[in-house]
Amino acid sequence: MTAYNPMPSQTDSTPFITATGEIVHPLYIAVDPAYHKLGTWFYIEGIGLVKAYDTGSKIKGPYRADITFMSIEFARKWGIQYRRVWRVDAERET
Q1: What is the pLDDT of residue 92?
Q2: pLDDT of 53-66, one tens digit each?
Q3: Global pTM?
Q4: Do residues 75 and 54 lie in contact, with contact meaning Cβ atoms separated by under 8 Å?
Q5: Distance of alpha carbon 73 from alpha carbon 71, whole angstroms
Q6: In whole angstroms, what is the distance from residue 37 CA to residue 26 CA?
Q7: Is the dihedral of CA 73, 4, 26, 1 positive or negative?
Q8: Of all residues in the chain, what percent are helix, strand and coil, respectively (each to 5)?
Q9: For 60, what's the count of Cα atoms within 13 Å in the CB-facing half-sphere?
Q10: Cα dihedral sign for 48, 19, 10, 35?
Q11: Which strands make up the sheet holding 41-44, listed edge to edge?
Q12: Dmax of the chain from CA atoms?
């Protein structure tokens, strides 16, 4: 799992807006939509429940995700981390 900040230098297209059209919030995640439907909930070890609202050109495959942090410095310090992740199949309201 990697991290990003929604500033123009860190995004593929529209900064601060996700692929689903939502305004970016901390702890949203980007996934590969070929493997995970946008809007899917995940549980990340040590973080909790997060929702897949975004995609990214470097997020390829079923085991990659990018987590949003509002601080560039924090996203850089996060680096690459390996966490256990579970997809939550139960429907949840946002």
Answers
A1: 55
A2: 999 888 999 999 99
A3: 0.83
A4: no
A5: 5
A6: 19
A7: negative
A8: 10, 25, 65
A9: 2
A10: positive
A11: 2-4, 66-68, 29-30, 48-54, 41-44, 85-88
A12: 35
**What DSSP string describes 18-55?**
-TTSPBP-TT-EE--TTTS-TT-EEEETTTEEEEEEE-
- Degrees (nearest 5) of the Cα angle 59, 84, 36? 40
Q: Which two tokens stand for residue 33?
A: 């939509």
Amino acid letter, 76: R
Query: Tokens representing 93?
Result: 């309201």
Closest C-alpha among 29, 13, 26 to residue 64: 29
